[in-house]
Write a structure and sequence with these properties.
The structure is a single chain. By secondary structure, this protein is α/β, with parallel strands linked by helices. It contains twelve helices and eleven strands. The protein has helices at 5-10, 21-38, 52-63, 77-88, 106-115, 137-144, 195-202, 214-221, 234-250, 252-272, 299-310, 337-352, and strands at residues 44-48, 69-74, 92-97, 121-125, 127-128, 133-134, 150-154, 173-175, 189-193, 288-292, 325-329. Strands 1-9-8-7-4-2-3 form a seven-stranded mixed β-sheet, with helices on both faces. The longest helix is centred in the last third of the chain and has 21 residues, at 252-272. The relative contact order is 0.15. The structure holds pyridoxal-5'-phosphate. Residues 51-53, 56, 78, 125, 129, 154, 156-157, 177, 186 line the site of pyridoxal-5'-phosphate (PLP). Pyridoxal-5'-phosphate binds at residues 51-53, 56, 78, 125, 129, 154, 156-157, 177, 186.
């Protein structure tokens, strides 16, 4: 896991009550730091008391009503997941598919918006963890211009590793997680709504499910005095507060630069060992590298041996359609040359044992 030691230490602090004013100060500081990391000074930002999946669901249940049209860029497992959750909200889902290892071309998304107008929401996974591909979001935002369609973005793997600029890019809803490049434990999902997204929620015909209602959550997280909504996972808030403090202490450009350097060098070293990367060269994420499993190698056996012999967890293909691959995350405190070197030498020792990994 990627948890920073001082984040774990913060979780040992005395457990304040969830309505304690000192805890409220900590919540407000957490939100202020999240705003900086997300690059937004408008709308609403808060950490949801659940994981990235719930962040996805929160955005969809707040912004969609039955019959709304949604265009989803689906070039991997998590794009597919957004389409499934949107369908459960009763939306009419138009999936625009991309090949594994590529992003869906923006022009195809713009064409789909024209063809199915009016489209309530366009959903894109910024960093597709199942393929190691980054969607060109800044370009998409420039191409969208002044569209009425809301831009919904999965930033689960991108936040803290590569630039995410909500206001500059006109993102209407973003969600992330705490356990990847922010360097915390799993358990919370930072979400951000633009002002116009909040206005759309207010004009809904039907109320939002209680636990996900952004208005009610803001009454607890932002309004003072706070109104009880749920009992906050206090220790996770301490953890997120400390993780964000570390991110800002390092500085966002420095952190993006560190992830970029470590990822680039790691990917070059993997290729120099004769292994192929899945992601197309101009779309490669630095912090998640998908490596094609060579023919005649038992990919799962290599994963098991990396874990048992080297204590390194690497992922495999996600979902039934995924090509055979290994997925290596170098995120947060693991985005360091030493961690990359450990993975490379572990792989060399396991693969060196025989082309089939045995
Ligand atoms: C791109 C993406 N979206 C959503 C999720 C779901 O997040 P969580 O597992 O924290 O619920 C993940 C998890 O890895 C992810 O990589």
């Amino acid at each position: 896991m990627n948890v920073e030691p001082s984040v774990l230490e913060a979780m040992q602090s005395p457990v304040l009550g969830h309505l304690d004013p000192d805890f409220h100060d900590l919540m407000s500081e957490t939100i202020e730091m999240l705003r900086v990391v997300y690059g937004t000074s408008e709308g609403a930002v808060l950490p949801l008391q659940a994981t990235g999946m719930s962040g996805m669901e929160m955005g969809l249940v707040n912004l969609l009503e039955p019959g709304d049209v949604v265009v989803v860029a689906n070039a991997g497992f998590f794009g597919g997941r957004i389409a499934q959750v949107a369908a459960r909200c009763g939306a009419e889902v138009i999936e625009v598919k991309g090949a594994w290892g590529e992003s869906v071309p923006n022009q195809l998304l713009l064409d789909a918006l024209d063809r199915h107008s009016p489209v309530r929401l366009l959903a894109v996974v910024h960093a597709e963890t199942s393929t190691g591909v980054e969607h060109p979001l800044a370009e998409l935002s420039a191409q969208l211009g002044q569209s009425d369609t809301l831009l919904f973005v999965d930033c689960v793997t991108s936040l803290g590793a590569v630039p995410v600029r909500i206001d500059d890019w006109g993102i209407d809803f973003a969600y992330s997680c705490t356990q990847k490049s922010l360097g915390g434990p799993p358990g919370m999902s930072p979400v951000a709504f633009s002002q116009r997204a909040l206005e759309r929620v207010q004009s809904r015909a039907r109320p939002v499910p209680f636990s996900f209602d952004v208005g009610l959550l803001l009454d607890y997280w932002v309004k003072r005095p706070a109104t009880y909504h749920h009992t906050a996972p206090i220790l996770h808030v301490y953890a997120l507060h400390e993780a964000l403090r570390l991110v800002l202490e390092e500085g966002l450009p420095e952190r993006w630069g560190r992830h970029a350097r470590v990822g680039r060098d790691f990917q070059a070293a993997v290729r120099s060992r004769g292994l192929e990367l899945l992601a197309t060269p101009d779309r490669r994420l630095p912090n998640l590298t998908a490596i094609r499993v060579p023919e005649d190698v038992d990919g799962r056996l290599v994963q098991r041996r990396m874990l048992s012999e080297h204590s390194i967890e690497i992922g495999g293909g996600l979902g039934p359609d995924a090509p055979e691959m290994w997925r290596v995350g170098l995120m947060g405190q693991n985005a360091r040359p030493e961690a990359a070197e450990r993975v490379l030498s572990g792989l060399a020792s396991v693969l060196g044992a025989g082309a089939d990994g045995r």
